[in-house]
Amino acid sequence: MIQQTRLAPPKIAMAEAESLLEKQPHLALNKVDAILRQAPGYPPAEFLAARALRRMGKGKQALPRLDALARANARVPAVLWELGDLAAELGDNPRAVAALHALTQVQPSIPAGWFLLARTLRKLGEDADAWRADLSGVFASSHDAELLKAATAVNDGQLDEAEAQLKLRLQRLPDDPPACRMLGEIAWRRGDMTAALELVERAVTTAPGFDLARDFLIRLLMQTNRLPEALAHAEVLTGSPVQSPGHRLILASVLVKLGQQERARGLYFELLAAQPDQPQVWQNLGHVLKTLGVQDEAVAAYREAVTRQPTMGEAWWSLANLKTVKLGAEDIAAMEAALTSLAGQVEERKEDVFHLHFSLGKAFEDAKDYPASFAHYESGNALRRTMVLHDAEDFSGEVRAAAETFTSAFIAQRGDSGCPAPDPIFVVGLPRSGSTLVEQILASHSQIEGTMELPDMMMIAARLQSRIDEGEFADFATMIASLTPADRTRLGEEYIERTRVHRQTDRPRFVDKMPNNWQHVGLIKLILPNAKIIDARRNPLSCCLSGWKQHFARGQTFTYDLTEIGRYYRDYVGLMADYDRAAPGSVHRVIYEDMVADTEAQVRRVLAYLGLPFEAGCLEFYNNDRAVRTASSEQVRKPIFRDGLDQWRNYEPWLGPLVEALGPVLPAYPDAPAD
Q1: Quick one: how many helices (H) and strands (E) in the chain?
Q2: pLDDT tens for residues 170-204?
Q3: Long-range contacts of 344-349 (CB under 8 A, 24+ apart)
Q4: Residue 327 banded pLDDT, cuts 50, 70, 90
Q5: pTM score, two decimals?
Q6: Thinking of the domain 394-453+508-668, which architecture would CATH place it in?
Q7: In which region does residue 471 sit, left (phi positive, over 0), alpha (psi from -120 to 50) or beta (all else)?
Q8: Looking at the DSSP assignment, which residues form a beta bridge with residue 648?
Q9: Of 553, 568, 561, 541, whose CA–CA distance to 383 is shortest?
């Protein structure tokens, strides 16, 4: 506390002066001056006078008084805080840093002091020390009772209570970084990505050395496909003075999403060279090597992962999912042992358990034990189905709404509008329909760049759908009809701009292979009238069974039940048929079996639809060494083979639910059923 003189003035006079400080600082100063005439140099009065002068806008007069107080009361936090804060405000950063260094040594448990010190150090260009000060502020925050109470409420799901606590804190401490980050987490848990990003960005802007907040921000940016920004933040994070393997891991994750597989591979090698006993990193390395087409190395990486962690279901599935790899008897025994060891932890280890079932399904399929194979696939799918949300009835309703909206009359009424860019080639359909093969053939043409399954059109569509969900429009047709020519042009330009980051060459056309975009063919042509759409279609039993046997890392929630995937295929065929009638010739259809039977003829047809000349390189697509990130990545590196055309027959005894769900679509294939 501030050192007292022997003759202390009346407490009442000091209390009166203090009460006037905020709203009438000039009156407070008059009272304090009277006190100081009675007790010259009285430290509490001197401190109150300096605070009054500052609030009157006379900071330069207050500064020497605070300096003198700090010299005499070197361990009084309030004096050091006021001096540091005022000096920083006046631009006297060296003096501010000295005071704040002293403050944080005296009172290291107060986060705000560290954050102010960090901001002041940054003004002096001392970025490394500023980063450490931010980290010290975060550490102090982890022991703050108020923040701990809010964090407990968040973890208990009491989001409203936590939000109220944090907002009160921000009223007292505007831009408090930990409070902003935690409010961002609350918004994220509620599904409000816009608010989450705004709050977490605010935390990082206020405290650039807040590594945990930056890590969270990177993940949010990846979730919203803002990849260049995510990369910039990930690059910053790797420069933290507190080194963590997690920083390079998240950088590698962003690089993978951006298609920069080679650099990601280098990061994984660096991490494993320093610490080889990391099964997750071995698995991630395997994913990158698989994408790059280095299959032997990918297999070795996945085996390193399961050797170190035999219950690591995803690594086993990654091995099984290499379509050209067969798991043998020793692998089956190891996976069965892993399942046995997890028998009492199914609820906690669902990810590992269902991955192991899918892997055993593939292993028994390779061994031609189809009853055992089907049983494991069924178990894996049933467990995975409990973890995803898919309402087949609601989805069918959305498909009907699209079909009823994009009629020939509606399309004609829209006229010419939208972004005229001819760049995109959309390859749509179901997963496992041969779309990767089509993409690889097209990407072997000198005018076409292959990218990946891009989420951007689905994000645009979801944003439009949210306007219905939030009550702005009564239904889908009303919302679509409300889009003006300017709106349609803007949305098309947004898609072109958002996907630019994935284009690594100067080729004028590019492939977007997101299969689910079949749901949005009407929207695509509305906002990108010169885009081309290729519908890759495969025998419904082959396609649906292959999708059901395939565990997808994300999305495709309709694939985990034979009835639901059959119904989805039926919805898809129906919508595409409706669009064919509404806009004949807009969509070009590739039948997988025809592509296998006469590849050159089908390739020539596709290129003619695209308005491009035939190139022989398209027939040697398997020599294209571009990165491929889908489940068919190994298959498209080899010439077309016929072996997979009738594999569904091995499971025919169990396909009744699928056949029933497909209904008239099955006998009509490759055409759509007649109305």
Answers
A1: 35, 5
A2: 999 988 999 999 999 999 999 899 999 999 999 99
A3: 346/383, 349/311, 349/313
A4: very high
A5: 0.81
A6: 3-Layer(aba) Sandwich (3.40)
A7: left
A8: none
A9: 561
